[in-house]
Records
---
Amino acid sequence: MHKKILTILLIFLSGQLFAQNARSFWKLSNKGEYEKIYKKLIKENGELDESAALNYVWGLYYIQNKEVFDLDTAYQFLQTADTLWRNANDDLKGEFIKQYVNNDSIKTWITYVEATAYKQANSQNTEEAFVTYVQKYPHSLILPQAIHKRDSLGFENAKRTHTYESYELFLRSYPDAKQAAVALEQYEKLVFQHKTKDANEKSLRLFLMEHPNSPYKEEVERDLYWILTKNKSKVAYEYFIRDYPSSKRASSAIFQLFLMSDDKKSVLETYTDWEQNDYYTQLLQDKDYTKIPVAIDSNVGFINNYGTLKIPAKYKEADVTYNCHGTNELFLLLSDSTGKRGLIDRFEKVMIPFQYNQVEFISKGIYTVTSNNKVGLYCLGEGEWVPPTYDQIIQLSRRLYGVRIKNRWGIISSDGTLKFPIEAGQLIQLSENRMLVMEKGRWAMYSEDDVFEGKIKSTSEDFVYNSYKIIDDSWFLLKQYQKWSLYTPNGEKYSDAYDEVKDVKKHNFWWVRNDSIYAMLNYQNQIVVDSLNYPYEYEKGFISKDSAEWKSYNWVGDSLFRTTADTMYFNGNTADIVYELNKETFVRFTTGIVCALDKYNEWNVTYVPQDSVEVPFIVAKSKKNGKYALLNEKGHQVMTPQFSSMRIVENAVVAKYGNLMYLYNLEGKRILSQGFDAIEGDGNELSLRLKKKFGYYNTRNQHQIAPMFDEAIVATTLRKKGVALWLGQKGGKKGLFDINNVKKASFYYDDMQLLQLDSSKVFVLEDEQWKLLDVSKNDIQMTCEEYQIIEKDKDSFWLKYKKGNKYGAYHSLYGDIIYPEFEEIDNIGTLKAPLFKVQQYIHQARLHIVMYINTKGEVIFTSMLNEEGYNKIKCQ
């Protein structure tokens, strides 16, 4: 009801408005009577919120009246007219039509305003003009053209400025612009260039933090990787992995740790998420199996211990070091069909491309590569550090390398940067962090850190040393102003300067000398003994003479004994001191007892264990009658000088009286009443010889065997039923026997040869054949004409034996593996896991038949090779 009343009211009011009549407006407009139009419009302005016609006429007024021409105001009125029209009911729209206002007329003038505004913006042809147009006329039919113009002009402005800020502003302002992709590309490029222009660690780290999704992320990570890992140390690679675990370069860092580590399995256990973990786990497992080079049609491949061809025979050559026992290395050095050298892993993944004349290992994961007689550096996983440029490259550390061109040396880092000019005559690595550089005969010392960081100037003032000496544990000596000083491995000067410094590592000190005076300098840089004339060194100490007085010291520097003498020395390897005075000889024992030997001209001291202590006895030759006597440490005679020879053995004395040798105890009493032509041996087991027969005596248990053997009996490692066996010869025949049961011994072999192993086997000669006898089983294992033990350890061996002109192979663990049918036999496996390579040459065909035979005697692989092919796998 209320709505109907309102509609009637509006219709009534509309009938009262002349100005809203578009027809009236145009009549007055044509006459230029805009003041009259304006007054009438103002008069009726109270109806502005309800009348589409009134708003329409106001819009026309601001369009047609040039004095007040205002498109923005006109557009506002026309938009209001359009809204009122769309909200009006049919009756009200009828009234608007009576006033010559309808939807088409409103739309026409709205379009007119939009087109006129567009023409104005177009005439200005600026980004700002079209930005304003788009803001003011968001519903314009030509809005797409305006947006296109806005975006195009905005992009041109960004291009003209060409900074990452200008493109960033464009993208923020017009994210849906057609040029957005190109703008984004330019933004990413310029922000990358700007923020990483310093190319240092700080700028690259900051860039990755601020732009984690940059298309240049991988490039930045690569540059940061080289910076952070320039030291090429384990710690550097670990830090990179910690800081950038999701980077593709983290995989490279893990691989470097894998290469450098002695415990490669632990690396794989640490980085379980590494994308290459499974691959290298399998590679490590495969390392347990030896790969053996074989030749097929003059090409080289590799088999495993079971004869399976694991690497196809498509290579021209393999490194000759693999030929003798195969290889368990992770990486294999080969030549391809063109003769170029390269490196593959055990699964044939190429690690160094086949493009070099020579590839040589220098340290874990690092190789020198040679091309056209020039040498470069190659790192597995990182590629060619230094292209072939130099005549020679030596490693100074993992990050520094000495390089030579002609006869001059320089220093480069792993990336090829020259750290020391190529002008040195020599380079010497003193320690892990110190090196010497020689120019014009003088030396300069630099730290490895200073060289790497480029902190050296290489001026003539640096070259101050005349010479150098490297001593143990990376310590070294430098000579300056004709004086030597000690330096630690870190290059710190450790000692004062001396005329001479001599390392005595065995006893942990140095001899130092100034003028003719020596001192003992310990490893704590303390003078322990000083004011010495030339020191004479012995096992238990040293001696020095001061005027007529001799002084002796132990190796700790403690004074042992000093006396006036003509000469002094330590007796052999003992701490006993011998000195001579007025042509008389004295021995001072460690107990402090001095024994005068003035009645004797030949003597020697032997220490004998007695009651948990060692007691010295002296065998001495009398000056008076030339006979030998036995003396105690005080010089008292235990046995008088009546023997033509004498020596002390364990718990006994062997002395010759007349034409026979007798055995005495250390109290001078005979142990055996019978004399012998000879008593041989130095320990407790002695050989007794009488009338060309040999017997036995044990000084510990007094067990004696009367002389009955053709030669001295020999203890063996053989045992039968737990009893140790001895080897003896009787009646021209040899046999094994229990030394405690000689009566049951049998001797019936022409010869016997011991293997000297913890084994039950011995070679016996019978019927002109050598036979391998298993003593424990009393069984002959094999027979041959000749044999040669090739390899053995304490409990196993393998031997090559001959029958006719052919060779076979016997192994103590596997038996007679190869029958004697071949010209050559080699074990290319190990002693515990042998794999035999045998060769037979067919002269008429000039072919080598090469077979690989396992421990069961089975042929697992065969090749027929000409001379060229055979030489490629021949063990040199």
Note: The CA atoms of residues 154 and 173 lie 9 Å apart.
---
Amino acid sequence: MACKYLIVFFLTFSVFLNAQKTNDYEKVALAEKIYLQLDNRVYNSDATIWFKAILANAATHSTELSSGVLYVDLINSDSEITESKIIKVTNGIGNGYFDLDRSYKSGTYQIRAYTEWNKNFDDNFITNETISIVSETSIKPNKNSANEVDIAKNKSINEDSINLKFFPEGGKIIANLDNRIGFKATNNFAKGIAVEGEIIDKNGKTIIRFKSNRLGLGSFILPNVSASQSYQAKLEKAKKSVLYQLPRIHSEGYQLSVASRKDFVVATVKHNTDFNANIKLSINLRGKTYFEKQATLIDGRYIFTVPKTLFPEGVLEIKLQNQSAKPIAERLFFNNRKSYRLNVDAKIDINKISKRDNLNILLKTKNSSDSIVPSNSSVLVFDKNLYGEFEANRENILTYFLLSSDIKGEIEAASDYFKEDSDINIDDLLLTQGWRNYKYNAASKKFQYVMETGLQLKGVINKKSNRAKRNNIDIMLMTFGDDSSVYTGNVSVPSNFNFQIEDLYGDERKLVLKPSGISEKESQYYNISLTKKAGLKPDFVNDEIQNSLVDKDSLIDTIVKIKQNQRSIENKYYTDINGVNQLDEVIVDAYKMTPKRKEMFDKYGKPDVVIDGKEINEKTKKYSRGLYSNLIGFHDKVLIRKDSLRNYYAETTNGGKGHVNMVIVDGIPVNKDDYESIQYINPKEVTSFEIIDNPSKARQLHATIYGFYPFGEFKASIISIYTKAGKGLYGALDIDQTLNVQTIKAFSIEKEFYVPDYTDATARSIAEPDFRSTIYWNPNVVTTNGESQSISFSHSDDVGDFLVVIESISKDGKLGYKTLEYKVIETQD
């Protein structure tokens, strides 16, 4: 147990930031972006959702000055939080997981990520990702939840109707000038739809023809617009003859047009009547002003030529002001600087392998000078035929940081804008996105929330009695568990206090908070309590239409059939070696199949020993040391041993030399370093103590607990403990009830993605089926100056085409994205 001095600090950080205001930055530039990469978009109800989070400053994309605490929620379609995680973030990088179980219903879910600091910016920088969870017994997700859109209701709407909107560049159509006009065509489900047609004047004369891209976006030049005219659009091949009115024409005013000319951004300002007007042009990117210049029109025109290298890559906000500093035209424009990105140089040693072969990837991240630079990368591998369409449409690291995180609302097929062979133009998109959709135009307001660098415990101390004479008092905080620590600090009485403690893991942990340095009697004169931090309320309204990137139902149908076939192969294997079908639900008389038990049953098999919690508590002694001391009387079912340090531990009666006992509490494997704490589980918290001899997937569980995969002959048992709280080991430890015991949320324990190592011939020959939805996942591949990284993993029993996705970021915000492919064939005998 470590003893530390507890630092008590008050809310001065936000006061400091509120005092800071420069001419270059808006306050919203201090927000942090949260990029969430998931390993998939469709999950079986017994799968694990793996994710990586990147936190970066909104303006610079630097990861160095980011929060150290990230909150991640899994929310169902009834807008209920089903599980929450607190993720430790270091230098802007964090990762975590959600272990699903059979209690999850088929349907659409949301994963939401936010920081305490980002609460200052409304919901502009809160990240939401939509996923599907499907049970193997259900082909299609349940769409009857209260907040889901009933698609059937929309059938009465004419699906052939087209909404066509026009967006003059700069904001207005100005008479007597050539005007560029963007347009957007959507159906009644707000999805882009390809159109073509013609612009006609009020006399029906065709002025110009236009054609959109496949997403319904495009632009055209309306020449020498007349103030006395009005213009309409007429679509071809439309089932209904509908005319769409263009915006009204202004008899006088400024026009702002922007274009890319090689290495320059060229902004042209015109006025149709005031040929010598004084103007000011400013160009901002993500809340920072990079360029400002005043000028005077010459013959009604002025051209600003600005080097692209003046700005980082991203969405520029170009503003035009008159001599009274009044905004008169705005334009969003994308500064495309591919040389500013990381060059992800990755190669696969062999592009065609057999099942269970080893694959090696050499990874380098380079700058524009071709030098290897430090970065943090993720490597994700999955079945291209099954999940490749999701990857093609999902938001990736480039899409998020350079586009969608800066623009409000949904951007259809956002990733397509960054593909090398893209058939769509990002400028067509930004012409239809008014400046009001730019997140950095939000009004400044006082910051209420601080940037958390670590776990914070906020509380209140008051005097309960007039016998409490002290105005300052020492407080002791003690945490329990294998990593238990004691902190002390001094606070004023009465006051609110805020403790920042070192890393504490275990999802939920118990601690004691009490006065220190005074008698127990005097301690009773003071009341100390922690205040619960209010999390964000969920606000998930699932719109199946908006969330459909691909034909999800068809894909889910395919995934379910594949998983059912794989489960059949697994069951046959485990039946052959154990003589037990793991789906046989007839176990023991009166055995209640709870979701946790069902999950354990499906994964590891039926229990051979079941001791009910009531039986255990009947044997509780007055001076019980915890669960294991109560189990001494059940020697016919479990053996309780004592080591030289008088610590209790359990063995199964089916043991013997080389037999391994592994412990799971509430479905959560207990780390080997925490085994000593199991003896202290409160017997009153236990609902059942069970033993599974010769379990299925024992080798994988051993690798999870001990960190290596056992080869050769291997015999094992699982001790499975269920508690009332269902929170795992730390939610059930026996602690002195006379103490002021409080429960807090701690960091989620990191979990390593397990991959069998088939480079060993013995391991490769093991017949146990290996079907992984995600073939490989490594969220934290770190490259250093001048060095490459070698990534190696063994493939599964799946064959076909597979996709490797690599996403990278440097500390100073450079981004990189790369995909590789390889093929797997049946093993050649």
Note: Residues 360 and 792 are 4 Å apart (CA to CA).
